[in-house]
Amino acid sequence: MSLPADIVDLLVVGGGINGAAVARDAAGRGLSVALVEQGDLAGATSSATSKLVHGGLRYLEHGRLRLVRESLRERELLLRNAPHLVRPLEFVLPHAPGMRPRWMLRLGLLLYDALAGRSSLPRARALRLSGPPLQPAVRHAFRYHDAWTDDARLVIANVRDAADRGAAVLPRTRFLSAERRDGAWQAQLSCGALRCRAIANVAGPWVAEVLSRAHAAGGRRVRLVKGSHIVVPRLYEGAHAYLLQNDDRRVVFLIPFHEQWTLIGTTDVPVDGDPHAAEISAAEIDYLCRAASRFLAQPVTQGSIVWSFTGVRPLLDDGKADVSAVTRDYRFALEDAGGKAPVLSVFGGKLTTHRRLAERALARLRRYFPAMGPDWTAGVPLPGGDLATDALLFELRGSHPYLAPEHLRALAQRHGTRARALLEGCGALEDLGRHYGGGLYERELRWFVAREWAQTADDVLWRRTKCGLLLDDGGRALVASALSALTEAAPGVSAAPWRTERRKW
Ligand SMILES: Cc1cc2nc3c(=O)[nH]c(=O)nc-3n(C[C@H](O)[C@H](O)[C@H](O)COP(=O)(O)OP(=O)(O)OC[C@H]3O[C@@H](n4cnc5c(N)ncnc54)[C@H](O)[C@@H]3O)c2cc1C
After folding, report:
1. Which atom, in ligand 1's list, is nearest to the CA of 353?
2. CB count, 10 Å around CB of 397?
3. What are the structural domain ranges in the chain?
C-alpha cells in the first residue's frame, strides 16, 4: 500500500495488539489513520504471549483490583465479540503442601469471580484429584475458568477491521523521525514522508526510542522483562490447563496448544538492549521443565521440546524490585505544542486489555478531534466474530462436505465467518489448490497475502497460522517459494527488510 497523499489525522506507530486496537478504534470514529509497523504485524511481543485472555489471578495478591476487574470485563466482551479467536479455558489449580494455604486460594478465587461480575463462565469450585497426569500425592485442587486466544490472529483481526474502516496499513515500514511544523507533524517513514495531526506511539518495548525519534519526552519508563515458553508433545488428555505454583512462588501454566502439544510458560527475566535479540536461555528451559515436573507424574525433559519462543514485556516501571511483581497495568503520556500536534505514548498494557486501552487512548485524544465519533468497540464483533463457532461449523460442514472436519475447524477458528468468503466458489478439494501440509492450502495462502499482509514464510507459518509446527523442512520451503512468487506478483509489495525468527528447537 502507498502512503496517503495528504495529511492524516492519526499516525499509529506499532502493529502489535495495542497499536492495532488504537488504529481500529480511531478509524471507526471517523479519523483518518495510518498504521506503521517496522516488521510483520504482531511480529514482536504480541505473538509471544501465553495467549491468555484473563484477569490474572495472581495480580490479586499485589492488590491490582482495578486491572483485574477491567481485564475480566474485557474477557467477557472478547468471548462475545470474537468467539472464533477467544475461547473459554478451564484451569485446574492443584494444591500441595508448602504452597499458598488453601483458604487463601479459595478466597482469591471467590474475589476473582466477584470481580468478573455477570460472567458467562462457570464459577470456581474445589476439586478432588486422583492420579495422572499429576503425581498421586497431589489430591486437592480448584477449578476455575479464564479464556484462551490466538494472540497474533487477534492482532490481524483488529488491523483488518481498521483497514476495512479506511485505515492505511503499512507493515514493514519504519517510523524514523518526526518534527512539528505548522501545527502538525512531519513524519519520516522508511517509505517516505507523511504529514499527520497526531501520533500514537504504541511501540511496546520501543516506546522510549520512538519518543526520542519525535524529540519528545514521555515522563514515564518501561521495564523490559523477557518471558519464554516451551512447546512439548501433549502431556495429558483433556482440554483444561494447569496453573502450577513453583517453589519460588511464581506460577507456571500448562496449556493445551492446538491438538498435539502442550505450551509451558513462562519466565520473568529482566533484559536490556535490543528486544529483537531476546531468546530463551538454558536456565529458562531448565526452570520451565523443573516447574512442570514438580507436579507431573512423568517429568518434562529438554529432549521433548519441539519449539520455543520468547517475548519482551514492555512493563510500566512502578519501581518494584521483583520483576514478577511489576504491574501489568498501563498508563499514557501525552505531550503537545500549544494545544496542537500531540504525541500520545502507551506504557505497559496486556493483550487482554487492548480494546479498553484503545478506548481510553482515544478519550485522551478527543480534545484534538472534538468531532470524532463516540466509543463503539464494546458492542461490535471483530471481523469473523459475528457467529458462534459451533453454528459456523455446522453451516460450513453443510456447504463444504468434502473438507475434513479438522480442516474446517481450523479455518473456522482462524477466520470465523470470513471463512465463507475464503471458501467462496469452492466445490471440491482441488479448488483449494496446492496442499503444503498441515491443512495449509494455496487458497488460504493467497488470502493471507491479499487480506492479511503476509509476505514471508514466517508470517504465515508462525503468526497467521501455527502450521510451522506441522510442516517439515520441505513443506516450509514450499511455502516460502510460493510466497515469494505471490508477493513478487503483487504490485507495490516489497521483499521483507526485517523479519522475526521463530526457532524450532
Ligand atoms: C512472555 C509473555 C507472556 C504474556 N502473556 C500474556 C497473556 O497471556 N495475556 C495477556 O493479556 N498479556 C500477556 N502478555 C503481555 C502482552 O503480550 C503485551 O503486553 C502486549 O503484547 C504488548 O503489545 P504492544 O502492542 O504494546 O507491543 P508489541 O506487540 O511489541 O508491538 C509494538 C510494535 O511496535 C513496532 N515498532 C517499534 N518501533 C517501531 C518503529 N520505529 N517503527 C514502526 N514500528 C515500530 C514493533 O515492531 C512492534 O511490533 C505477555 C507478554 C509476554 C512477553
Report:
1. 11
2. 14
3. 8-45+153-221+327-379, 75-147+223-316, 389-489
The mean predicted confidence, pLDDT, of the chain is: 93
Return the CATH superfamily for domain 389-489: Alpha-glycerophosphate oxidase, cap domain (1.10.8.870)
Mutate to test the pocket of ligand 1, among 313, 316, 356, 458 (most ligand atoms within 8 A of CB): 313
Cell of 309: 519462543
- Our mutation pick for probing the ligand 1 site, out of 36, 201, 345, 350, counting the most ligand atoms within 8 A of Cβ, is 350
Nearest CA to ligand 1 atom 28: 16
β-partners of residue 230 are 264, 308
> Which of 223, 351, 355, 453 maximizes ligand 1 atoms within 8 Å of its Cβ, making it the mutation to test the pocket?
351
> Does the CB atom of residue 313 touch ligand 1 within 6 A?
yes
Rounded-to-integer distance, Cα 229 and Cα 261, Å: 12
Find out if CATH 3.20.20.100 is the number for domain 75-147+223-316: no
Which fold is adopted by the domain 8-45+153-221+327-379?
FAD/NAD(P)-binding domain (3.50.50)
Measured CA to CA, the distance from residue 464 to residue 19 in angstroms comes to: 18
Ligand 1 site, residue 86, Cβ cutoff 6 A: no
pLDDT at 492: 41
At residue 502, does pLDDT exceed 50?
A: no
In tens, the pLDDT along 343-393 reads: 999 999 999 999 999 999 999 999 999 999 999 999 999 999 999 999 999
- Asked if 159 contacts 149 with a C-beta cutoff of 8 angstroms, the reply is no
Place of cell 459456523: 392
pLDDT band at 496 (very low <50, low <70, confident <90, very high): very low
Express each pLDDT in 19-78 by its tens digit.
Answer: 999 999 999 999 999 999 999 999 999 999 999 999 988 888 888 899 999 999 999 999
